[in-house]
Design a protein that fits this description.
Layout (H helix, E strand, L loop, with lengths): L10 H13 L6 E5 L6 H9 L2 E9 L3 H6 L6 H13 L3 E8 L6 H12 L5 E2 L2 E2 L7 H8 L26 H16 L2 H9 L4 H20 L4
Length: 224
Amino acid sequence: MFNDATLTSDIDWAASLFEGMIKNNINLTWNCSTRADRIDNEILKLMKRAGCHTIALGMESVDPVVLKNIRKNITGTKIREAVSMIRKSGIDTIVFNVIGFPGETKESIQTTIEFLRTLDTTFITLGIAVPAPGTDFYRFVEKNNYLLTKDWSQYDPMKKPVFSYPNLSADDIAYYSSYGLKQFYLRPKYIINRCLSIRSLNDFNKYVINFVGFMKRYVMHSRV
């Protein structure tokens, strides 16, 4: 993994990196993160040849109010275009999403979930917003008395949120995080496509382990 939030931020630099990997026969398979507006067909071809198998993109939400509040200048339309381009290049995609930012409502979360169900991405995440101390988000929830605890061990995107809004409770947000993942991953079409993508025993074992883990966490042991 290239531990860089936007590996192709400087596309010319990234192209020289991938060309160097190809020229020097660096035999690696790898994944990375970048922005939906920092890729094109040419850079994707180089990435594929250099060994890239998965690209992660941050979307967070498709709701315009939420996106404005977190200053995220990537729309759902741009994400859909980028995912389509990446998948056509033979590379898998992960789309990162976070629920619970300022401006979030039950309706906005549902809209994001429905968008994800129609998105041809290989994987998604649907974490819970964490108001890290020192951020605008933390100051917002603290100032408005939405903060529930300062037990830092609970500040985890995989745990119940440490804040609660008047019209969107911590329990609501936790529910939608689990619900959204099930809506995406338990679709028959998605499961069939994953099965058809298996090319080796290693792929089979990986998917079985991941599926069993998912079922245990979000279905068998879930109360939502």
